[in-house]
Amino acid sequence: MRSRTLIFILVVLIIVSVLTLLFFGLGGGFGGRGYGVGEGVPRSFWLVLIVVPLVVAVAVLAYALIFPELSEEKLKAKPPSAPAVEEGKSALDAVLRVLNDDERKVIETLVSEGGTMLQKDIRYKTDLSRVKTHRILFRLAKRGIVSAEKYYNTNKITLANWLTEEKKR
Questions:
Q1: Does residue 61 share a domain with residue 127?
Q2: Series of mean pLDDT values for 10-residue runs along the chain (169 residues)
Q3: 60 and 10, same structural domain?
Q4: Structurally, how many domains does the chain consist of?
Q5: Is 27 left (phi over 0), alpha (psi -120 to 50) or beta?
Q6: Contact call for residues 16 and 53 (beta carbons, < 8 A)
């Protein structure tokens, strides 16, 4: 999707530059009267009309090269799975090591309460604001560490199975 859009922008900008160069820069403009380079319109105007689209086209091309697009097939092909854990260490310990302080506080609260809590209860136990709790849980859910399901006016938050399975053994 992004590739097609960038190609379209590049083509349009190059066409505008070339047409400007052909019709106004070299000739007398459309119809040959009053639109040429030396006929009342400053040369810098035509230069800008030619150069600006080319500079933008180069910038778009550089952006496309520096930030390549991730294809959706690649993202779909790799479903989130449990991270590999070294012998003798639990997955929960590995996850806790990479989380920031607030995320760690939320996960530790979930673990101490059995792995499932309401979002509003997490907020009160961790002493975080509603917004901060929501943002932390959103980030954790995006990573696959917790899952959330609607529960009346709040959410029911559950630790991922791959984190709780080792604890049961």
A1: no
A2: 72 78 60 51 69 78 71 52 56 87 93 92 94 93 91 91 68
A3: yes
A4: 2
A5: beta
A6: yes
